């Protein structure tokens, strides 16, 4: 579900967030229109509005865990977790976490990878939110959901700044709701 279709229609913050994201054509490979959020991070107001919209949505949902997907989910996840009183759990690429981990493989639109999480980072019954910057095919979010559920967490929702409507990524989320702030921009604005 897009934020504009869920009570934020006409909210000027969404347009400002969209306008602050730079599009890089043909990165990391030919045909990809990369949505570069580093320019969003340079815009203090747009960055704050992004976090605030998520916090407003999740503040009263009883979320006990915010799981951020490496690397850009680490940018938004900790701020959201602090604001709603939840713990932050990093979901990392292989061999980045010390200690015992569990892992899930996934497929991207331009390759495959694996996510890992510390064993014991979540507890049975924890109510989890998964955060990332963008959803395309849903492979990464799906792997995150599986990791959290294997440890007994209840994934309440996945939240992403940017969502691609035409890739049907939500269909891979095993029925979990998906909340998206904006649709991707198609051309470079910088």
UniProtKB/TrEMBL annotation:
Gene3D superfamilies in alphabetical order: 3.40.50.2020
Subcellular location: Cytoplasm
GO CC term, one of those recorded: cytosol
Keywords: Cytoplasm, Glycosyltransferase, Purine salvage, Transferase
An individual GO BP term: AMP salvage
Metabolic or biological pathway, per its Swiss-Prot or TrEMBL entry: Purine metabolism; AMP biosynthesis via salvage pathway; AMP from adenine: step 1/1
Alphabetized GO MF terms: adenine phosphoribosyltransferase activity
InterPro entries xref list: Ade_phspho_trans (IPR005764), Adenine_PRTase (IPR050120), PRTase-like (IPR029057), PRTase_dom (IPR000836)
Keyword field contains Nucleotide-binding: no
Spans traversing the lipid bilayer: none
Superkingdom in the source lineage: Eukaryota
Stored HAMAP family: Aden_phosphoribosyltr
Family stated for the protein in its record: Belongs to the purine/pyrimidine phosphoribosyltransferase family.
Record protein name field: adenine phosphoribosyltransferase
């Amino acid at each position: 579900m897009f934020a504009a279709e869920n009570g934020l229609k006409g909210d000027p913050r969404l347009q400002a967030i969209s306008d602050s994201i730079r599009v890089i054509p043909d990165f990391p490979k030919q045909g990809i229109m990369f949505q570069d959020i580093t320019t969003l991070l340079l815009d203090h107001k747009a960055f704050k509005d992004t976090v605030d919209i998520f916090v407003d949505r999740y503040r009263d949902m009883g979320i006990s865990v915010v799981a951020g997907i490496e690397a850009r989910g680490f940018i938004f996840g900790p701020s959201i977790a602090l604001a709603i009183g939840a713990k932050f759990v990093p979901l990392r690429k292989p061999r980045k976490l010390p200690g015992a981990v569990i892992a899930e493989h996934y497929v991207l639109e331009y390759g495959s990878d694996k996510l890992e999480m510390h064993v014991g980072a979540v507890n049975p019954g924890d109510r989890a939110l998964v955060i990332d910057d963008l959803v395309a095919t849903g492979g990464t979010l799906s792997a995150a959901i599986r990791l959290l559920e294997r440890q007994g967490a209840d994934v309440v929702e996945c939240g992403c700044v940017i969502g691609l409507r035409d890739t049907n990524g939500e269909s891979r989320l095993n029925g979990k709701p998906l909340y998206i702030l904006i649709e991707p921009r198609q051309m470079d604005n910088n």
